[in-house]
Amino acid sequence: DARVTQTPRHKVTEMGQEVTMRCQPILGHNTVFWYRQTMMQGLELLAYFRNRAPLDDSGMPKDRFSAEMPDATLATLKIQPSEPRDSAVYFCASGLVQGVNTEAFFGQGTRLTVV
Amino acid sequence: AQSVTQPDIHITVSEGASLELRCNYSYGATPYLFWYVQSPGQGLQLLLKYFSGDTLVQGIKGFEAEFKRSQSSFNLRKPSVHWSDAAEYFCAVGAQRGGSYIPTFGRGTSLIVHP
Fold first, then answer.
1. In what order do the strands lie in the sheet with A74-79?
2. How confident is the model at residue B28 (pLDDT cuts 50, 70, 90)?
3. Across the interface, which of B32, B44, B94 has its CB nearest the CB of A106?
4. What is the model's pLDDT at position B31?
């Protein structure tokens, strides 16, 4: 059963530390999304990639966040330095985008707590 | 910009009762609409989607949704709710970002099921 895999599931870190979240998209999907979920803002799109190229990262704080796809099986979201306001659940999703059909399949998320 | 509004933060129903969750969209042309469900501690799972054609869409787990252009709505329904349906439900619209239509989510409706 194909699924999006995210690691770690939980992460507690101290303010100022670097955090790296990893995502393995479903094999054959050409699009990878990163969303952040908080009580205050709900689900926000941070960035997305098509065929490993970044197409939109306007939702991401550029000074501390970075997203990459070093290869087709791995997407990373990095925060450096982390701050308490970054505490949230971060979801990776992937999809096979053909035309306007952008159905996203979600991973289980990484719950990040910055203390 | 394309967006969706879910007017109900919480909905409480008795097991076996019918369910309708409301979703209103803001978009001039025919929107691409989705309903997702999120169980506690899990990622989002697609219930159904609408792109065009028949305005009554059937999904998984016995859910259906009806697209009504005149009311700018895409409400989710189920004739008989089971206790396992208790979860958070998200309506989403395909919003244009970076050249594609990316799922953009409402704030969600929490469904509580009483025995």
1. A5-7, A19-24, A74-79, A65-71
2. low
3. B44
4. 83
